[in-house]
Amino acid sequence: MSDPCEHFRGLIAMDVVGQLSVHERVALSAHVEGCESCRDERQDLMALSAVLGTADPDRLTEDELPFSLQTAVLDRLRAEERRERRVHRRRYVVLSAAAAVVAALVLALTLASPSGPVTKTVALVGSPRVHATARLTAESWGTTMDLNESGQPPGQVLWVSVRTTSGSWWETGTYRTAGSSLHITMACALAMSKITSIWVRSGSGHVVMHGTLPHTPALGLS
Question: What's the pTM value of the predicted model, to 2 decimals?
Answer without folding.
Answer: 0.46
